Amino acid sequence: MTGSLAQFAAQYAVHRAAEGRGLRGQALRSLPYLRSGPLAQQWSVRARSFDFFLRRVVSARHNPLHVLDLGAGNCWLCFRLACLGHAAVGVDIRGDDVDGLGAAADLLSDVPNPFQRVIASFEELPFAAKSFDVTVFNASLHYARDLSRVLQEAMRVTRSGGLIVVMDSPFYRHQDDGEAMIREKRALGQTCFGPRAAILLNQKFIEYLTRDRLCDAWPELAWFRHRVRYPLWYEMRAIRARLARGRRPSRFDIWTAQVP
All domains of the chain, ordered by start, with CATH? Predict the structure, then answer.
């Protein structure tokens, strides 16, 4: 990991702690079905994505699966999969115990076959070719800096016939809306991030995705969008934005591509 990325990881952990994301005990074990607290609304969206992922990706393939969780954070997804009998490996650049890989220590005692945790970047995955049945970018692909290289690595470690899944990353129909989001984020940087703004906003992450951006990054992959039914307040955002004549909001949904 480069010095710049390591510095980002450390400062981002501080920011996440300030946001109250260092969940422990039953709250951590409940993810993504967090029912109370200031983060519950956000997790209600991610719970819908996870339910779809289980129903349409995991249950539709042979069992048990070997799953690579990219952007694993506190490993809630690895934990859920391990409880269902699958083998999971969580990868993140953060090993801290806020909501990085270190936070998963409590979860490991609750599964018969513990999942693995690996600190690494998406651009250089420390795994042999064709190691996984499913590789899922777990609210994380928008943190790529070189999208083509990241997708190439995901293809390399996924078995032929396996799936690459993008879950909970912001997709825009039009690139202009994604660029407007970035401008808004930078304009509010000092307010949102305080003295950490420069480090957190200057990493040159891609920040958002569009269909064209995803397809152009690695044309060998044929991507399919699976529309997820999110809570009503989430679905109403586009209507509210239209009435306010603001930029169109992103959507999460789930995108999949089969590895040739």
Answer: 3-258 (3.40.50.150)
Instruction: Give me the helices (H) in 19-139, please.
Output: 25-30, 40-53, 76-83, 105-108
Q: Hey, CA dihedral for 85, 87, 93, 94, is it positive or negative?
A: positive
Tell me, yes or no, if the pTM score tops 0.90.
yes
Cα first-last separation, the chain? 30
Query: Using one digit for the tens of pLDDT, what is the confidence trace for 140-153?
Result: 999 999 999 999 99
How many CA atoms are closer than 13 Å to the CA of 236, on its beta-carbon side?
4
- In a 3-state reduction of DSSP, which class is residue 204? coil
56 token code pair: 């349409």
User: Does the N-terminal peptide bond of residue 64 adopt cis geometry, omega within 30 degrees of 0?
Assistant: yes
User: How far from 186 is each of 77, 176, 190, 200, 240, CA to CA, in Å?
Assistant: 30, 16, 8, 10, 23
| Amino acid, res. 195 | P
Mean pLDDT taken over the chain: 95
Q: What are the Cα distances from residue 181, in Å, to 46, 89, 170, 176, 249?
A: 20, 32, 10, 9, 9
Contacts of residue 87, Cβ cutoff 8 Å, sequence gap at least 6 = 64, 65, 66, 67, 113, 115
Q: What is the H or E stretch that residue 137 is in?
A: strand 132-138
- Among left, alpha and beta (phi > 0; psi -120 to 50; other), residue 221 is beta
- With cut-offs at 50, 70 and 90, classify the pLDDT of residue 1: low
